[in-house]
Design goal:
The chain has helices at 64-75, 89-101, 116-130, 154-175, 201-221, 239-245, 248-251, 270-277, and strands at 55-59, 79-83, 106-108, 135-138, 184-188, 227-233, 288-291. It is of the alpha/beta class and 298 residues long. It binds nicotinamide-adenine-dinucleotide and magnesium ion. Magnesium ion binds next to loops. Magnesium ion (MG) binds next to loops.
């Protein structure tokens, strides 16, 4: 069954043929090598002009949730600057082409989010290349499981916080020089922020930080007409999961513990980002929109 935003369907029966096998890729992983490939809405997302003329910067836009969001934004009328790692050029070029096919501008701006100089240059290059900026999606992220805190090395702890938290701080801070009233910031947190796994101590901690950063900053920027919100995905099929985001033995059952009984696909996240980016969510501020297959949240 092919999913789209508008056809009446039983959500528990969507993606019924999804059946991932054990598989491992080195970080950051490629969607091009994911089996089965993730659904980013390539064949299904239909825009209705909700982001006409907008200019968006999305980190981690080459694959997974960021890629689905990039496609949706372009089909809603936005130009998109894409951040990703140089190793992900193949995935990034595919998504950039889909953005251009929608009649939008795609800028490809590879680099490492752990580097503050890249984060600042990314904002400058996006503003210059798009002619401004009014949507920022902080979505790039690192997740590597670890079963024993005594073996969680300082480098991983640092990389996870740099990628997930510091980059969000550096990029958002740089973007504020350009964001005008009406602009929107959306951060990707996770169900892990409130329901942490014992093997994701570092990652879950960054996601709780992102959630709180979002709610604090939202209050600071609301009087300026800039809305800040977050999306909290549950288990979504992306390269993050096969680059040691999960132990191999969990891949085959990935997502089955949710109420709906299956993993989500990136395409199912994109409408949440579109909603929070667009003026239709004008009174939604400091909110975390959970898209997690039914896990209760605070
Ligand atoms: P993904 O692997 O497709 O996307 C993550 C992206 O982060 C990569 O494509 C890469 O471009 C970027 N990235 C990682 N390290 C980087 C670095 N050092 N420099 C530059 N870019 C870097 O996986 P995804 O699941 O779509 O992840 C997107 C976001 O969603 C992440 O913040 C992740 O924590 C969050 N999330 C994912 C899930 C899930 O189940 N997949 C659940 C909750 C939250
Ligand atoms: Mg990627």
């Amino acid at each position: 069954m092919t999913r789209d935003q508008y056809t009446f369907t039983n959500p528990a029966e969507l993606y019924a043929d999804f059946d991932p096998k054990r598989q491992k890729q080195p970080e950051p992983g490629l969607d091009a090598e994911l089996s089965p490939r993730a659904d980013h809405g390539e064949k299904t997302y239909r825009g209705t002009g909700r982001l006409a003329g907008r200019k968006a910067l999305i980190t981690g836009a080459d694959s997974g949730i960021g890629a689905a969001t990039a496609i949706a934004f372009a089909r809603e009328g936005a130009d998109v600057a894409m951040s990703y790692l140089p190793e992900e050029e193949e995935d990034a070029q595919r998504i950039a082409q889909l953005i251009r096919d929608a009649g939008a501008t795609a800028l490809t701006l590879p680099g490492d989010l752990r580097d503050p100089a890249y984060c600042r240059a990314l904002v400058e290059d996006a503003v210059e290349g798009l002619g401004g900026l009014d949507i920022l999606v902080n979505n790039g992220g690192k997740q590597v499981y670890n079963e024993d805190l005594e073996t969680l090395d300082d480098q991983q702890f640092d990389d996870t916080f740099k990628t997930n938290v510091y980059a969000m701080f550096w990029i958002t801070k740089a973007a504020l020089a350009y964001l005008t009233p009406g602009s929107t910031i959306i951060n990707t947190t996770s169900v892990q922020a409130y329901n942490p796994s014992e093997i994701l101590v570092d990652y879950a901690s960054t996601k709780a930080t992102i959630n709180t950063f979002t709610k604090a900053l939202a209050q600071q920027l609301a009087p300026k007409g800039i809305r800040v919100n977050a999306v909290a995905p549950g288990p979504i099929w992306t390269p993050l999961q096969v680059t040691e985001g999960q132990p191999q033995e969990k891949i085959a059952q990935f997502g089955e513990q949710t109420s709906i009984g299956r993993a989500g696909q990136p395409a199912e996240l994109a409408p949440a980002y579109v909603f929070l980016a667009s003026p239709e969510s004008s009174y939604v501020i400091g909110e975390t929109l959970n898209v997690n297959g039914g896990t209760p949240t605070p």
